[in-house]
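queue> pop job 88
queue> type: inverse folding (structure -> sequence)
queue> payload:
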């Protein structure tokens, strides 16, 4: 059983890939979520049972509750549903689900698995109080888990140090799955970015995923201002109030016609959009520990789509780019280095050495290989190799 707070699971590639992998391995998977009673067809088509913990009419009542009480009510709903399902294992997706997953696992006498999508103690959007809560709940519960899953080797190593774990966490990187043949959304519309945005043959630099503070978005727009004829496309949701900031930076540099905001597209056709760009960027601010340690979807999507990557030096993103030779790195906040890195990747677009490095990396970094760690973890749990504390 998996617990996931996100109400828009069709956008969460990590959860969906894990459900598919475990179903294919012969496990019965129930996903408890906070979304609508009737989940989208793209979820039900790929296996697993998708159950909302929200009762009909509860949304209006919850909206009138104070935040802490609303969270407690939601956790209680997750715990009740988890116990009723009588699972062998309860899989908590991210720290927001760790406490209810632990309680549900304990009451159901099931194993507890913690799957952290980031290094939760080091994210910038948490308040000081929230970071204290995260530190406390992880310190208390992570050592009691039957299995811990981390998003990168660096995150896994830090979690092992933080909690003095007896065994290393399972590393499960956000490598995309290519085969969506059973999904109704596999035929979703693909936007022809160049014609739709009137870009023509001009180079496209792509920022894929949510655009917001601490992700190098303003620095990217600033660099584009100094790259004549180059366009930047932000493909994905923009955090509230952040679009005007990007437009203001572009206007100051005279690049307002070369900065494009494109809404999220269906996961099933995402790579068909990625491959239309020339360079992809991963520019997270490394002053935050999470941004130094984690590996997010976009990096692997760029590589799978065959486009060069510009990443911040000294981060997990940058280390992987340097290891595979699939792009260039720059110091965060160094405008000249960023401009030079993007320029280098654009000039090398057709370089046989770069094309070969991208192809080799894409052959090695596949979900088919990556999912084995997840399946092996559940195989050990199924054999009684661990239990919830």
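queue> result:
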């Amino acid at each position: 059983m998996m617990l996931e707070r996100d109400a828009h699971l069709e956008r969460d590639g990590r959860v969906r890939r894990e459900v598919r992998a475990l179903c294919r391995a012969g496990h019965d998977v129930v996903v408890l979520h906070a979304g609508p009673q009737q989940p989208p067809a793209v979820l039900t088509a790929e296996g697993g049972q998708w159950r909302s913990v929200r009762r009909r009419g509860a949304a209006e009542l919850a909206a009138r509750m104070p935040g802490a009480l609303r969270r407690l009510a939601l956790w209680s709903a997750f715990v009740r549903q988890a116990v009723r399902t009588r699972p062998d294992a309860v899989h908590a997706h991210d720290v927001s689900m760790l406490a209810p997953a632990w309680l549900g696992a304990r009451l159901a006498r099931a194993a507890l698995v913690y799957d952290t999508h980031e290094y939760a103690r080091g994210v910038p959007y948490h308040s000081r109080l929230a970071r204290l809560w995260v530190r406390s709940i992880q310190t208390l519960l992570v050592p009691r888990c039957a299995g811990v899953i981390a998003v990168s080797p660096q995150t896994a190593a830090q979690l092992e140090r933080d909690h003095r774990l007896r065994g290393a966490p399972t590393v499960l990187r956000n490598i995309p799955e290519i085969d969506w043949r059973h999904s109704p959304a596999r035929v979703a519309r693909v936007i022809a970015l160049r014609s739709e945005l009137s870009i023509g043959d001009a180079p496209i630099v792509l920022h894929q995923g949510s655009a917001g503070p601490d992700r190098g978005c303003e620095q990217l727009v600033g660099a584009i201002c100094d790259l004549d004829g180059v366009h930047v496309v932000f493909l994905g949701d923009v955090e509230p109030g952040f679009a005007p900031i990007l437009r203001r930076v572009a206007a100051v540099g005279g690049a307002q016609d070369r900065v494009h905001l494109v809404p999220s597209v269906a996961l099933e056709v995402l790579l068909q959009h990625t491959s239309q760009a020339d360079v992809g960027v991963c520019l997270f601010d490394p002053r935050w520990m999470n941004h130094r340690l984690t590996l997010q979807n976009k990096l692997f999507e760029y590589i799978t789509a065959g486009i060069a990557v510009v990443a911040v030096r000294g981060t997990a993103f940058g280390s992987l780019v340097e290891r595979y030779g699939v792009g260039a790195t720059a110091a965060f906040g160094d405008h000249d280095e960023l401009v030079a890195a993007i320029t280098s990747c654009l000039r090398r677009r057709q370089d046989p050495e770069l094309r070969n490095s991208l192809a080799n990396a894409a052959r090695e970094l596949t979900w088919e290989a990556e999912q084995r760690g997840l399946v092996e973890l559940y195989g050990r749990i199924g054999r009684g190799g661990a239990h919830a504390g």
